[in-house]
Amino acid sequence: MSDVVPAPSQPRIPVRGQNLPADSTFPVRRIYCVGRNFAEHAREMGAAVPTSAADRGSPVFFCKPADAIVLDGVVPYPRGTRDLHHEVELVVAIGRDAPAGVLDVADADALVFGYAVGLDLTRRDLQGAAKAKGLPWDTGKAFDHSAPVSAIVPAADAGALGARTLSLKVNGETRQQGSLADLVWNVPEILHELSRLFALRAGDLVFMGTPAGVGPLQPGDRFDAELAGIATLQGHITA
Ligand code: MN
Q: From which residue to which does the signal peptide run (predicted)?
């Protein structure tokens, strides 16, 4: 076998675990994302807001390429947009291949390796134009450098997610703050729903959706994201 082009390098996210070597990394296979997973964010986007668990319908999924990951926090302002938006999100790292078939909600936590905090950066103008025409969201969501992410903390070290706070400051000012208790679909429910559509495997990441308060980022802006008690992510937008 002889590759006719150089093999792409696989993104590897640092892992910060109490019982792991300091140079531990998590190789990324796929990135799944959940849309409209906080009611207040669905409302601010003008989408229908579920009023009960029975009224949730199905979650909204989309994907980013694995090489959209940014590890050093440095995000060049993307081409093709005049409205780059921040969406701070819980990121779930899958540590084991799912068994064949649909994953039971009760078995889902066993697949989780750990957690991080990340940004689902969005070219909101392109996403809005696609939505208006009933077209796919790829140009709005799946672009280069669209997924800055923190180091991953093993679930065993992180403890229960519970009602932890997810927050984002831009230039020191709080823009987004939400409780994981307000997720429309929690982590086991999302893994169950994903398994109805895709074969989840070790190395997959799931961006769990953003709380209200999304807004624009400009060149020069600094961002500080936090998943309380677990992970932080700092970075900035370059011209
Ligand atoms: Mn999002």
A: none
